[in-house]
Amino acid sequence: MQVLRKLLYFFVSVLYGIIGPLTVLASGDAVQSRIVVNLPSRTLEYYQSGNLFSEYPVAIGSAYSPTPLGEFHIIDKVINPWWYPPGKDYFVPSGPANPLGYRWLGFLPTYGIHGTNIPWSIGRVISNGCIRMYEEDVEELFDLVDYHTPVQITYDRIKVSVDDNGNASIGIYPDVYGYQDISVTVAQEVLAAKGLDGLADAAFLEKIIAEQAEQQLIFAQVYNLLVNGVKLTAHAAAIDGELYIPASAVAAAINTKLTWDESTRTLSRKYQSVPGQLKGSTVYVSLNHLSTLFGGKYTWQDFGRSLSLTIPVLFHNGRPLSSDIHTINDRNFLPALPVAKALGLKLTYDEKQGTLRNCIRQIPVEIIDNQPYIDTTKLGEYYHAAVTWNEEQQHLDLTEPAWDLDCSMYLDLMRDCLE
Length: 419
Prior knowledge:
ten-stranded mixed beta sheet; 10 helices; elongated; disordered N terminus
């Protein structure tokens, strides 16, 4: 029987390897849900639609029979499984003496997620490599999980999470298999990758690494951040009772540059400067100063858990052209050279003189950070184009009029343009 069961698992695994990926692509639910088991913290997380649905404590393989790391999928679901002890010629049917409990979710031919008849083992490094759960937990998970659900088994001694209330927490867990050394620098890199750069100071990290308390400790209150409808990895954060925005992440999202002056602790974009705070490698600015740098507007979503920033963007033919838009004395100025290129215009810019010309005449521009910017009210006269403003979406739409421009009076002056 043991040989037959192993053969069955083998053929199921081979068959899954052939048709499984196709089935996963066809099933939206299977793609959206997943299981993540982190061995150092001995936890199993179940996600639906990309969001954490539930978390459970688990037991994992001992140091002599470690749980395998990697990416797997559920290939087997069994109610009231029988246990076939490794290397033995007998089996244990379902019942109180069966160490698998009453549910089995296989992700490899001889490895699975299952219940247990010794609940005191949960949270320990003790099994033959399988993942044990409390019986009530595995029965709940069993009903949620379908075939082909991805199973990711990780080894992260530093576990960072953000709950539904915006509490950012970090936990340090033991090196159960001797696989991973950690340090303050490593912890800072993990936080940065989670969009929480610099929000936990080095002294706090050094203390919790030394203690290895094996629990999540809250270190910041954070908010999801969206820029022009796109959710960023970085978070907004409450610092000293005021809401701060990771300005460098916002700048990257709209493809613009910022300059940080450490001596004055100010952040600049073109000609505008505001005070900021450098934490890790990220510069944060107060929400009150954000519009000075980027313009636009903000709204709260998800019952105050997400901050949505809508920053002006210039569009041409339905595609974003530039977010490098500046407002001076209630007038909008656009980058003259990129706009001219999009419209197919040939212009000459003299950086030393700060002058911009077409083949006929000089074009009035505003020089910002050594680059020419044109007033939107001048586009019709000098670029044969116009812009329309969408206040709600914060869009400037660059359009070219349907009529032709009569330049016959300038033919002699335009000879160089036509050559």
